[in-house]
């Protein structure tokens, strides 16, 4: 249920992806595919390549530049249309960094230490993590609230960060006695909100997993996709007729969910067709579905990548349009906090 306060804001969808590695099938199904589907509805759609988040861990500068462009190509190849949505990279709109600073004064240190993503990424030697890695969720709240976004489509792993965004909005509104920020709704929907590793059904498919066989990259060719699916870890049992029967079979469940998400079917519809069959039959069928869904995206991505100057123009145009929305909201935020306005 949406917070009643949100009715006061115009419907606006915001989401972001880090350019910290090649994008995966998890990013596609959990995020990009849904970003494209949300276009053209009543809500304005704003999509961002969050390069300032990426640099909270070390990035080789040349590689980062290439990955920002590659991420832009992936957004467009997956169907995000810069004419229908605003598509840009975060560092070009300085309002994000400024708003993040304001939120650093609203958020509490204890909130940040509780974030499981910080604990995972900082590891044992958390004293040595960058300060930015700790403050990461305040920047994420800034991304969202600088546009007063009412809804954010993400995968399951971002749920805790979105709860923190809501906490920051609520504390700001409460402390200053205003209804300046919406209490943003997470949109975590569909069967692919948590695509798991192909090697270990208890771990998320991730661009940072050391094993390339654990994931399908959006740049993998048809043979690589088929090989990775063929080698995916499974069990020896035949498939049941419904998802109920896959409760304790995480690897099998993951492959069925991937199939369903790629084919726009429900997992039960998929199982109704494969009931009683083993993975010897299911895996080649999944490979076929995956290749036919992903190959056109990979091809379009490389077409976009062939013209980096055009990508840069698209991102610059998106940044101008994003800044036009963000700046008045940033200025009003400063004013509420007692700072002097920088623009009239
Ligand atoms: P990031 O870059 O890790 O992932 C981008 C999006 O892909 C989703 N995702 C997955 N979904 C399903 N299965 C998976 N295995 C999988 N792996 C990744 C993520 O949930 C996410 O939706 N902190 C964010 C980026 C961010 C952001 C924002 C998101 C910064 N500011 C504002 C939304 C709004 C992140 O690291 O996502």
TrEMBL record:
Pfam families registered for this protein in UniProt: tRNA-synt_1b (PF00579)
Predominant place of localization: cytoplasm
GO biological process, one term: tryptophanyl-tRNA aminoacylation
Matching InterPro entries: aa-tRNA-synth_I_CS (IPR001412), aa-tRNA-synth_Ic (IPR002305), Rossmann-like_a/b/a_fold (IPR014729), Trp-tRNA-ligase (IPR002306), Trp-tRNA-ligase_bac-type (IPR024109), Trp-tRNA_synthetase (IPR050203)
Binding-site positions, L-tryptophan: 143
Protein's cellular compartments: Cytoplasm
GO cellular component, one term: cytosol
Catalytic reactions on record: tRNA(Trp) + L-tryptophan + ATP = L-tryptophyl-tRNA(Trp) + AMP + diphosphate + H(+)
Broadest EC class assigned to this enzyme: ligase
Membrane-traversing stretches: none
Binding site for ATP: 18-20, 26-27, 155-157, 195, 204-208
Transferase found in the keyword field: no
MF terms in GO: ATP binding; tryptophan-tRNA ligase activity
Segments carrying motif 'HIGH' region: 19-27
EC number(s) recorded for this UniProt protein: 6.1.1.2
Keyword annotations from UniProtKB, A to Z: Aminoacyl-tRNA synthetase, ATP-binding, Cytoplasm, Ligase, Nucleotide-binding, Protein biosynthesis
Ranges spanned by the short sequence motif 'KMSKS' region, renumbered to the chain: 204-208
KW Transmembrane (keyword) present: no
Record-stated family: Belongs to the class-I aminoacyl-tRNA synthetase family.
Function: Catalyzes the attachment of tryptophan to tRNA(Trp).
Subunit composition and interactions: Homodimer.
Name recorded for this polypeptide: Tryptophan--tRNA ligase
Organism per entry: Paracoccus tibetensis
Biological classification of the source: Bacteria, Pseudomonadati, Pseudomonadota, Alphaproteobacteria, Rhodobacterales
Gene: trpS
């Amino acid at each position: 249920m949406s917070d009643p306060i949100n009715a006061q804001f115009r419907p606006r969808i915001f989401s972001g992806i880090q350019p910290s590695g090649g994008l995966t099938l998890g990013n596609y199904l959990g995020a990009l595919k849904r970003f494209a589907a949300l276009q053209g509805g009543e809500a304005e759609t704003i999509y961002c390549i969050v390069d300032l988040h990426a640099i909270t861990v070390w990035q080789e500068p040349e590689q980062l530049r290439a990955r920002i462009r590659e991420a832009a190509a992936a957004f467009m190849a997956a169907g995000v249309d810069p004419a229908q949505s605003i598509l840009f990279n975060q560092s070009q709109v300085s309002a994000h960094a400024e708003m993040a600073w304001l939120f650093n004064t609203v958020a509490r240190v204890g909130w940040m230490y509780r974030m499981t993503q910080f604990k995972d990424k900082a590891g044992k030697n958390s004293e040595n993590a960058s300060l930015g890695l700790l403050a990461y969720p305040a920047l994420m709240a800034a991304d969202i609230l600088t546009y007063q976004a009412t809804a954010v489509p993400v995968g399951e792993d971002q749920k805790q960060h979105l709860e923190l965004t809501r906490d920051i909005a609520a504390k700001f509104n409460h402390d200053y006695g205003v209804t300046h920020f919406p209490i943003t709704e997470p949109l975590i929907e569909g069967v692919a909100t948590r695509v798991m590793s192909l090697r270990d059904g208890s771990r998320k498919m991730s661009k940072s997993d050391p094993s390339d066989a654990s994931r399908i990259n959006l740049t993998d060719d048809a043979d690589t996709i088929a090989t990775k699916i063929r080698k995916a870890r499974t069990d020896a049992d035949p498939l049941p007729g419904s998802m109920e029967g896959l409760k304790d079979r995480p690897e099998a469940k993951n492959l069925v969910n991937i199939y369903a998400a790629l084919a726009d079917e429900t997992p039960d519809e998929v199982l109704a067709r494969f009931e009683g069959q083993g993975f010897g039959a299911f895996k080649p069928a999944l490979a076929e579905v995956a290749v036919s869904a992903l190959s056109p995206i990979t091809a379009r991505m490389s077409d976009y990548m062939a013209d980096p100057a055009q990508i840069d123009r698209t991102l610059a145009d998106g940044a101008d349009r994003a800044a036009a929305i963000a700046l008045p909201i940033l200025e009003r935020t400063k004013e509420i906090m007692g700072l002097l306005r920088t623009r009239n």
